[in-house]
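User:
I would dearly like some help making sense of a protein record. Take your time, and here it is.
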Amino acid sequence: MASSSTTAAAPNTETYKTMDKDLEAIGAHCQYTYCNQLDLLPFRCQSCKHTFCLDHRTETAHKCAHAGAWAAARRKAAETPASTTSAQNGKPTLAKAAQCSHPQCKSFINTLSSVGVSCQTCNRQYCLKHRLREEHSCSTLTPLGARPASSTHTQVSRAQTALNTFRGLLAKGKANAKTVSYDRRQSSAIPSASSLVNIRKNAKGDAKIPADKRMYLHVEAEAATTTSKLPSGDFFYNKEWTIGRMLDEAARGLQVQNLNNRGGGEEERLRVFHVEGGRLLEFGEIVGAGLVSGNTVVLLRGVGPAIPDLITV
């Protein structure tokens, strides 16, 4: 038979509780009218907060002026969800966690271990490391919720830059493909043997990719819309990857800032332009389906969604 000490403690359903140990040492007088008995183990009413002896500890015994107040407060606390209570207290929760707004920071903020700091200038939240304006280049950012003074001019300038970029790349694609027609089944011109040998010789990539699944490509970062530390390079990727994954690896290889996984508008999104095919590749396409080794792809930013028939424009 289990002892009473191992039995789980029942929830407190009494309207009174024993006083603190300090008061127990000196005792207290019962505050019920005409009683005033000195009790070494006094009780405090949870409703009226007065002190009573053993005989008058219940609300009924001392005719409590606030009878039922304790029960009503307990019932209200039980009906309030725990998530609502924590949100009202302003404590960090998992639902309130967010990622630092710095493009290169992966830290989560508004958690129990990491607080978030809001920048009053750009209206973004950052971790403690990037909370200062100099650390997150605040002067170059457009405040969230604010419209730039020259927004119309910026959009026109961006559109003109994208149009000029497309015209130059399309001209290069037509010269390489030697055709103005676009066939989705044969979107890539066959590269010359010498160019393919040079790309294979200088290509970099993940050594874990099997040799029979490698796709060798020449990758460039278009200077008018992107900023990269390396203007171009030769790389190899897995034929079974999607264009989106290949773009992530290409941006990492050329050290181009990639904000595709952070959401936002199309003006900040990177796209892959296939020179020989004369089109923007969609993120869900398979590398081996639309490209062949020796082709050239260009990373562009803010040029809009993929358009499959640019070479016929």
